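pipeline stage [seq->struct] | target=Class II aminotransferase/8-amino-7-oxononanoate synthase | organism=Patellaria atrata CBS 101060 | residues=455
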Amino acid sequence: MSAFEMFHDMIVAQKPKARTLKNGPTFYRNLERRLDNRRKKDRLYVLKTPRNVVDFSSNDVLSLSTSGLLRMAFYEELAKYPKFVVGSCGSRLLDGNNTYINNLEKEIAQFHNATDGVIFSSGYDANVSLFEVFPGPKDAIVYDELVHASIHDGMRNTKATIRRSFSHNNVDSFRAVLQELHDSEEVFRSGERTVIVSTESIYSMDGTIAPLTEMVRVADEVFPTRNVEFIVDEAHSTGMLGKNGRGLVCALGLEDRIAIRLHTCGKGLGCNGATVVGNETIRTMLINYAHGLIYTTAPSFPTLAAIRAAYTLIRSDFCEERRLRLQTLVRHFYRKMFDHPSFTIAKEAGILDLPSGLNFEGKEFVSQIVPVWTRNEDNHQLAANMQYADYNAWPIDFPVVPRDQGRVRLVFHTDNTIDEIDGLVEIIIQWAEEKMEYMKDRTHWKRQLILKEKL
């Protein structure tokens, strides 16, 4: 049995089996029927136990958390407040507010060249709140088709009466949607109501970067009344792009044209939580209307101290060196892959591709997120090969990504080594070669079978 066939059999053996209950309470029987629908479609999620493996999966891209750097900075911050209270003791509007969180929000906002900020417990809570709060009745939301699930969940409860998507990072599609709104709705044409645009800076499953400068230009051309406002999710660019990792908006100098930005702390910063930055009006609206802020306990002091410690680190020249090293590692991966003759053959055969790496040599910044595209379900086989070799990366399928666009999502980290990346390339190329050989053998077998039938 070939290595490819062995991994194929291993994948089949690991697929969860249906376990519909024949007896027991109706409640549990019905729940298991719903779970069986996911099992049959290979969409049942299970929690994974961490292993000591080479990390090409986690969001700790600057390796601040896993290296211990954040822990040391966190201890230093805690030491400044030896009598701190662990819990926040209530929501922000009752007993959970304090000078520390107010000052931290101001510091974070100023770091990102904004005037005010509000800290949320997570990026998910923040996004849901943003789209519940800001679009008003008769406003419109125009969004990239690949925006995060949290944005879609927020839009389900929005007051906006119109929602339109545009093709991913496609400026022409974006212009067409805006033009249609301009031509068909007087309230937008006159500037009476607002068109709110939702986009991300770096897309979490594709590694693509939004053409934000071009989008702002198009918005101003179609709506000279300047009633188009942007909400930009900077989750994967925080700590990565711009001076000291201030994000894409700051890197492009668009701070005055972007109404709201979301900077999460669970990726480049290595901790958790999120901050919405904007002006005083944005902050006041969130304090008064955001259910994700009003009806939940405020972040605890240790959470806030970790966020401040992370920002202390990313401001430093030390983290700038880590960002540059990460760029070197990602570019090394692309060169090794693109220079390998088997990659070219596998790409032409439709087995493997790295679409996010096109023209990477000419780019100032290359995303730390690299999707390895495969044919349907082959992403599970490739991921199994990686896991077997103690390289950690996972297959991504619908509904996280569009149908028929499965991939293995690679995330590179500052503390990855050149040897680890060379090993990663070897695993991927070897899988592709075995896959091509397997397909060749199957084609030969089918041809022989057809000949026998004809005889």
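stage status: PASS
auto-comment: Residues 69-314 form a domain with the Aspartate Aminotransferase; domain 2 fold (CATH 3.40.640.10). The radius of gyration is 24 Å.
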